[in-house]
Automatic annotation (TrEMBL):
Source organism: Virgisporangium ochraceum
Keyword terms of this UniProt record: Membrane, Transmembrane, Transmembrane helix
Matching PANTHER family: SLR1927 PROTEIN, SLR1927 PROTEIN-RELATED
TM segment ranges: 12-29, 35-53
Residue intervals of the DUF58 domain: 201-285
Pfam families in UniProt: DUF58
Name assigned to this protein: Membrane protein
Classification via InterPro entries: DUF58
Domain of life: Bacteria
Amino acid sequence: MREALRGLTSRGRWFFGGAAVFAVSALIFGEKDLLRVAILLAALPLLAAAYVGRTRYKLSCSRTLQPHRVQVGGTSRVVLRLQNLSRLPTGTMLLEDRLPYALGSRPRLVLERLGPHQASSVAYTVRADVRGRYEVGPLVVRLTDPFGLCELVRAFPSIDRLTVIPQVVPLPSVRMAGEYAGAGESRARSVAVHGEDDAATREYRYGDDLRRVHWRSTARVGELMVRREEQPWESRATVVLDTRNLAHRGEGPTASFEWAVSAAASIALHLRHNGYKVRLVTDSGIDVDAAEAGGEGILLDHLAEVKLSQKGDIATLVDRVKHRTDGGLIIGVFGMITTHEAELLTALRGSGATCLALLIDSTTWLNLPTAAREEADQAHGVAALGLLRSGWRVVGVPHGAKLAALWPEAARGSRGFTWRAAMAETVSGGLGT
């Protein structure tokens, strides 16, 4: 009851003030009718406080997000269901769900009185324009009496989480060069074979059965070789995301880093839906195997929260990619790189992998003077040429480029043919090498 009295609204307090005025007037003028009015004015807020206080702890609430994972720019419907667990009806309730700033202003909803054991639902919609994982709730319910004299606030502790993933762009179905084919498919296997009997072999390891030694391959190679065990070959792809802060430009949802995150998510899901075993690696520590159970959701959840790294570097990224990577397809989404960093990326070709780079010219996200623009273009061109010479296929990504339009070019295995003329002109005219 004390807490209910502390919840008196301004109207309730004015009623008490009016009761005091009428009570003093009744004493001064000796009018009993004024005293009756004073008692009535004082009793109404007390009755309202008792009414609201009795229903305060007899409500249940549940929240449902439909869906709980949305893309950037998408909407989610939040459904609130409240039930009156008491035998007394409630008054009008004002609902306010607490939301982070990125999801917009806090919704305020009015729920009419609930009868005994009655339930009712209300809903609102949130829109997310920035990646991340956001807490929805707790729900604050303001209970009032029919006269608006008393208002109590109750906060339900339950919190739900809305995951805003990067935008996933549908990509055209094209065959990727250098893929490993799964068993039973028509695509050619990319596995080294030795001997006329087409037996796949590998180096002898301690404990191998000597009956599996392939003597013809052993004589040709000069070291002991054994037949590989029969195993279903599967298409494997590693998607590499460059999260270095120095490699990207721009701010907010239109920054070059957001383009890179969206591209990584789109490529990973496209390859996974086409039968690839997909792995996502970043230099900031993310290493997700999307082939595992629930891997797609885990991958998207990581990309929803990935941020620019202040301490990331290409050497660390190369080490992470080489760990547990043996051939297959490597697709890197890189920001600006130097010639030295391009040389470091050459190490990924040593595992026999087919390497494709989406090289973002993040300087095009800035308005640079003419001289600075020419210098930035030269540096970008030289880095792309370094990747080309090391065996990477390179596809340039300027500001405003659409991934769906670039994807067929990347899949053709053109080894960056769009760069060759530009590279030759840049190197011969600008650098003299």
